[in-house]
């Protein structure tokens, strides 16, 4: 019996059709708006009133990258705390809507449209991952919706000029590469470097930035090996790199392969290079399975405070964070750095929104591109948010750290890559 | 002679009545589909467009799984091939978008044929594994040829703009394009199934040995089913590229193939309305299940599939048919 089935489908479609009506005059409606006057007249006020501000975030809560799903928990805890105890951001209570894209770009597009058109959010506060952000930024820029502090380190968010509504937050991979280059230039000016990197935009961004930063120095890249995310093991690559007899190993990997490379390096007692592991793979959870005794002296770089680091045990912001996490996100482990990351990003948004000249979408867009030495307490001392017209990278400073005992220890000064290498061009 | 005539008449009347009702149902459905975009906000129009895209892909999968009785865990790969073919043609050769549709479908068809020849000598689990391998191996392959495919950053494309005479918004124009292609695909599939090919496919599904005895060349029809199914997937992939305006290898993981298969089984194997219901399922159930439980959307999605399989082993199409049969008819 197919007729009834088709009839049912028709009914279903009709039911769906009955759910909404096109607001022809405004082409998408402007629910929940506040009239903006003065210099802000005529700017977009969708999703913001005198009392509320609605934000949307897209994260992989399911699927292979669901570990990142912890980030919005930290963000929610921060906003809940600010709403309950500080009266919101500038008197506006924050409503933060999180949607799941399972790390799939088409799903991210659907969710972005849902947030913008149906939920009528003021801005997208974070989309996670390079593919999901690349899939949505044409849409957000076409609709003139701010897409701020995206959680991906690709350099394109800052170098591109055709998407003024999208901006990153964390240090981009090229800046990170510059930090390692600066360190080697100073500490091992004649170093021979072997590089293991993931064969995608992330690995190539970092490796390319590293090579460019080394131009004109005596530090040389003597061997490079790439791997695919689908590879089962990177042991063959590590054997090839060992043959180069390089005295530095730059480990540009994602967590799973980061562990494997650290383990392979520890096992090979004949080759003992200085091991630099990139920030993405530097979390304690990556090092633990390798054995802490095997990763002593490994170097990496970071920019926000590690909740596991006893240095910050008496830090007021860290104490506040741990206390508020317990209060507003019970059940979430405050020691997971992803939560801290979310907290730091959310408080950066707080600062940027407060600094906005107009409580409008245009105001936020201009504000995130006009940050001048903004201090965020969860970032390392000396790391500030700085942007300008033509500089779309909020964080470009990092501090080096060395693994000692059971934890990372910061050393040296914060390296501001802008000062060392000049602004990042397209 | 006279008795057979008396019996034959009500049968003919019943068939005619059923036929009329079917056309009435289809006309109603089409009217609703044309009316919908003028009533909905752009976001819902976009969702319906995606339902149609998935429905076209599922139509192809239905041909292979529902009608020819073969299994494919790699349907997403052909979808990806169509999507990438369209994207590369538009991006590198600046081809106008309507031309990409036949080309994308043709590329997928040829590839389906090429892969179908070896794959169709296999049966059941072995076939499932080979098709799964195609889906797995496509993602790293797409990342390799960076000059052509844009590597893992993918390709961003301009969406087709509505012609000025139509007076439609972009989302409505895309919707009508997709609707037209979906209707054409359904007509093509329906006529294909009514033809000699359709009968041969059903024979292969029901009993291979018997089919062979009847003179059906098994490998020929199986390969053809594979190729047709790939062609529909390719066409759907092409429309997907128009609608989303972005392709990347991560858009077409193994997950897509498995979701498509699950959608089809839930929608109803071997029925014409199955792909549409499956498309609705693939599109809406993941987001609904996220509204139910924020923490584990995947779990709810999985449980729903299991529940549907228990309640309606013949899929939603079969369930709808059964429910309507239960309603007493006035005669």
Automatic annotation (TrEMBL), chain A:
A Pfam family per the record: Peripla_BP_6
Leucine-binding protein domain mapped to chain residues: 52-404
Q: Does the keyword Signal apply?
A: yes
**InterPro entries recorded:** Leu-bd, Peripla_BP_I
Q: Which keywords, in A-to-Z order, does the entry hold?
A: Signal
Record's signal peptide: 1-24
Listed transmembrane segments = none
Q: Which family does it belong to?
A: Belongs to the leucine-binding protein family.
What is this protein's record name?
Branched-chain amino acid ABC transporter substrate-binding protein
The organism encoding this protein is [Actinomadura] parvosata subsp. kistnae
Q: What is the lineage of its organism?
A: Bacteria, Bacillati, Actinomycetota, Actinomycetes, Streptosporangiales
Automatic annotation (TrEMBL), chain B:
**GO cellular component labels:** plasma membrane
Please name the SUPFAM superfamilies in this protein's record.
MFS general substrate transporter
TM region positions: 21-38, 44-65, 72-90, 96-117, 124-142, 173-193, 224-248, 260-286, 298-324
GO molecular function terms here? branched-chain amino acid transmembrane transporter activity
Its annotated compartments are:
Cell membrane
- Origin, by domain of life? Bacteria
Q: According to its record, how does it sit in the membrane?
A: Multi-pass membrane protein
Q: Which UniProt keywords apply?
A: Cell membrane, Membrane, Transmembrane, Transmembrane helix
Major subcellular location class: membrane
User: What name is this protein filed under?
Assistant: Urea ABC transporter permease
From which source organism is this entry?
Answer: [Actinomadura] parvosata subsp. kistnae
């Amino acid at each position: 019996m197919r007729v009834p089935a088709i009839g049912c489908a028709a009914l279903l479609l009709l039911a769906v059709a009955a759910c909404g009506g096109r607001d022809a005059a405004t082409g998408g409606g402007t629910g929940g708006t506040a009239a903006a006057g003065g210099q802000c007249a005529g700017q977009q006020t969708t999703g913001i009133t005198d009392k509320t501000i609605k934000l949307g975030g897209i994260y992989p809560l399911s699927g292979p990258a669901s570990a990142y799903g912890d980030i919005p928990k930290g963000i929610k805890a921060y906003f809940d705390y600010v709403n309950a105890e500080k009266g919101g951001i500038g008197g506006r209570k924050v409503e933060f809507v999180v949607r799941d894209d399972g790390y799939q770009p088409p799903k991210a597009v659907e969710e972005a449209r849902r947030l913008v058109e149906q939920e009528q959010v003021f801005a997208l506060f974070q989309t996670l991952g390079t593919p999901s952000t690349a899939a949505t930024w044409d849409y957000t820029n076409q609709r003139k919706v701010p897409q701020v502090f995206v959680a991906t380190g690709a350099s394109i968010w800052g170098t591109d000029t055709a998407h003024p509504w999208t901006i990153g937050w964390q240090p981009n991979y090229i800046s990170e590469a510059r930090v390692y280059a600066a360190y080697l230039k100073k500490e091992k000016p004649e170093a021979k470097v072997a590089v293991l990197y993931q064969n995608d935009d992330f690995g190539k961004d970092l490796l390319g930035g590293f090579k460019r930063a080394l131009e004109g120095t005596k530090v040389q890249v003597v061997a490079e090996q790439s791997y695919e995310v689908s590879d089962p093991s990177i042991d063959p690559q590590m054997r090839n790199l060992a043959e180069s007899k390089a005295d530095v190993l730059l480990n540009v990997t994602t967590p799973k392969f980061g562990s494997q490379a650290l383990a392979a390096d520890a096992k090979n007692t004949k080759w003992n290079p200085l091991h630099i592991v990139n920030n993405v793979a530097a979390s304690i959870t990556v090092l633990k399975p390798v054995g802490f005794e095997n990763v002593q002296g490994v170097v990496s770089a970071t920019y926000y405070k590690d909740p596991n680091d006893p240095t910050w045990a008496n830090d007021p912001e860290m104490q506040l964070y741990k206390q508020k996490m317990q209060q507003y996100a019970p059940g979430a482990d405050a020691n997971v750095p992803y939560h801290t990351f979310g907290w730091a990003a959310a408080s950066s948004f707080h600062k940027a929104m407060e600094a906005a000249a107009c409580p409008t979408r245009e105001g936020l867009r201009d504000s995130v591109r006009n940050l001048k030495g903004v201090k965020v307490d969860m970032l390392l001392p000396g790391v500030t948010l700085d942007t300008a017209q033509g500089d779309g990278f909020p964080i470009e400073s990092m501090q080096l750290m060395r693994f000692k005992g059971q934890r990372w220890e910061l050393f040296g000064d914060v390296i501001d890559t802008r000062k060392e290498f000049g602004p990042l061009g397209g | 002679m006279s008795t057979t005539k008396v019996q034959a008449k009500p049968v003919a009347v019943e068939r005619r009545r059923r036929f009329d009702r079917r056309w009435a149902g289809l006309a109603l459905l089409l009217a609703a589909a044309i009316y919908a975009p003028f009533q909905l906000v752009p976001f819902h129009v976009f969702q319906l467009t995606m339902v149609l895209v998935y429905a076209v892909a599922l139509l192809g999968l239905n041909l292979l799984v529902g009608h020819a009785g073969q299994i494919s865990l790699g349907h997403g790969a052909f979808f990806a091939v169509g999507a990438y073919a369209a994207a590369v043609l538009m991006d590198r050769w600046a081809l106008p978008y309507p031309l990409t549709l036949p080309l994308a479908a043709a590329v997928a068809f040829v590839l389906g044929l090429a892969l179908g020849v070896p794959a169709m000598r296999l049966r059941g689990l072995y076939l499932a594994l080979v098709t799964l391998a195609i889906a797995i191996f496509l993602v790293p392959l797409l990342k390799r040829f960076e000059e052509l495919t844009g590597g893992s950053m993918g390709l961003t494309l301009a969406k087709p703009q509505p012609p000025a005479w139509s007076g439609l918004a972009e989302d409505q124009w895309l919707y009508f394009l997709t609707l037209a292609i979906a209707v054409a695909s359904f007509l093509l599939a329906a006529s294909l199934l009514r033809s000699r090919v359709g009968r041969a496919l059903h024979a292969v599904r029901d009993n291979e040995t018997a089919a062979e005895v009847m003179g059906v060349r098994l490998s020929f029809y199986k390969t053809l089913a594979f190729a047709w199914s790939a062609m529909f997937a390719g066409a759907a992939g092409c429309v997907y590229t128009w609608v989303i305006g972005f392709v990347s290898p991560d858009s077409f993981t193994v997950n897509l193939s498995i979701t498509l298969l699950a959608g089809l089984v839930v929608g109803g194997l071997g029925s014409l309305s199955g792909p549409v219901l499956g498309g609705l399922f693939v599109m809406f159930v993941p987001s609904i299940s996220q509204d139910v439980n924020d923490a584990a959307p995947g779990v709810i999605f999985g449980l729903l599939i299991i529940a549907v399989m228990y309640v309606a082993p013949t899929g939603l199409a079969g369930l709808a048919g059964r429910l309507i049969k239960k309603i007493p008819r006035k005669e």
